[in-house]
UniProtKB/TrEMBL annotation:
<keyword id="KW-0812">Transmembrane</keyword>
<keyword id="KW-0472">Membrane</keyword>
<keyword id="KW-1133">Transmembrane helix</keyword>
<protein>
    <submittedName>
        <fullName>Uncharacterized protein</fullName>
    </submittedName>
</protein>
<feature type="transmembrane region" description="Helical">
    <location>
        <begin position="75"/>
        <end position="95"/>
    </location>
</feature>
Length: 103
């Protein structure tokens, strides 16, 4: 809703300008888009930061400040993704094999 409230005045102004005169220049459209994006990006990144993003807090590690968050955007995230890609198919096969042997 907030994005629409920010975008609507910019769109209405572009509409008025387009109806009143010559075709709008790329620069005029860019100026209106930049005004909207400036508000929207600031608000959305604040929301992402509040929601935790990809850094997950670990509260039980109070003694080590550098270990209080795990950043899954970097190397650790890629390693976890790679290992999950290798181990999950193996675990699935083992589970299905164990399930069949019980029957």
């Amino acid at each position: 809703m907030r994005d629409i409230a920010d975008m609507l005045p910019q769109l209405l102004e572009l509409k008025r300008a387009a109806e009143a005169g010559p075709p709008l220049s790329t620069r005029e459209i860019e100026t209106r888009c930049n005004a909207y994006e400036k508000n929207m990006i600031g608000r959305s990144f604040a929301w992402v930061a509040k929601s935790g993003g990809t850094s997950q807090p670990i509260e039980e590690l109070e003694s080590a400040d550098f270990l209080k968050t795990i950043d899954l955007d970097g190397l650790l995230g890629r390693v976890i993704s790679f290992l999950a890609g290798l181990l999950l198919p193996v675990a699935t096969i083992l589970y299905k094999t164990a399930k069949r042997s019980k029957q």
